[in-house]
Amino acid sequence: MIKHIVLWKLKDSALGATKQENAAKMKQMLEALNGVVPGLAKLEVGIDFSATDASGDIVLYSEFPDRAALDAYQAHPEHQKCVAFVKEVVSERRLVDYEG
Predict the structure, then answer these.
(1) How far, in Å, CA of 69 to CA of 66, rounded?
(2) CB-based contacts of 58: which residues, under 8 Å, 6+ apart?
(3) Residues 86, 92, 98, 100: is their CA dihedral positive or negative?
(4) Mean pLDDT (whole number) for 21-31
(5) Any residues with CB less than 8 A from the CB of 89 and at least 6 apart, and which?
(6) With a threshold of 0.85, does the pTM exceed it?
(7) What's the whole-number average pLDDT of the chain?
(8) Buried/exposed 7-46: b ≥16 CB within 10 Å, e otherwise
(9) In order of start, what are the domains of the chain with their CATH numbers?
(10) Are 4 and 62 in contact (CB under 8 A)?
């Protein structure tokens, strides 16, 4: 099983919306990929509530049966719509992909 985890820090405001509004929209868009992208076994999105200096603002946790499924997810048109929005509202991104 491949685990794909992404952590983002968001801009205070972007696209005429607050950080909180953009976090909520990201969560909705990403979670809508469940059942749409072939090979996506699980996808969860969490919005941080601790708001410390070390915190990210939003995290994605997803699982795929193999690397080919992760690659297909990355290229999927519905995922690419999310990527376009995320690029506009994010100030920092960290990623970990691992087998487990």
Answers:
(1) 5
(2) 7, 8, 10, 23, 26, 27, 45, 46, 47, 48
(3) negative
(4) 98
(5) 10, 11, 14, 15, 17, 22, 26
(6) yes
(7) 97
(8) bbebbeebeeeebeebbebbbebbeebeeebebbeebebe
(9) 2-99 (3.30.70.100)
(10) yes
